[in-house]
Amino acid sequence: MFTNWIVSLLVNTVVLMVVAGYYEPFRLEGAGAALLASIILSVFNLFIKPVLVLLTLPVTVLSFGLFLIVINAVLLMLTAEVMGSSFEIDGFGAAFLAAIIISILNLLIQNFIIEPMQRRKRSS
């Protein structure tokens, strides 16, 4: 379980750096800031996200789960707020688009890199 968390942290760190490198309204000072943002975001996802999901459950159900992207954007903005000048996002729209990009990249990395490696490890 600890190994899965570390892998998730590293994947999120890389994804945050990629988004910051290609999406101008989303800025990180460097790899250290990306790692710290990934740690803070994972803590927020562990403690704050379940509460937000529960509070917004009717809206989430009505939107077929798409409101979760709004929650992810809010958590990204909260992370940027906590980190100060080392992590900046230019508004909610930028955070919303970044949340979509981050979700897609995480999904691709999980399905095409992490899971095949885990399957290969289990079979050997």
Describe what you observe in this structure.
- This protein is mainly alpha-helical.
- The protein has six helices and two strands; from the N terminus they run αβααααβα.
- The protein is globular and about 45 Å long.
Give the number of helices.
6
Strand numbers in spatial order across the main sheet:
1-2
What's the overall geometry? globular
Note the main sheet.
2 strands, antiparallel
Main structural class: mainly alpha
Strand content: under 5%
Rounded mean pLDDT is 95
Rg (CA only): 15 Å
Detail the topology: elements first, then pairings.
Blueprint: H1 2-22, E1 26-28, H2 31-47, H3 49-55, H4 57-62, H5 67-83, E2 87-89, H6 92-123
Antiparallel strand pairs: 1-2
Helix pairs in contact: 1-2, 1-6, 2-5, 5-6
Transmembrane segments: 5-24, 30-48, 55-80, 92-114
Protein name: Phage holin family protein
Organism: Fictibacillus fluitans
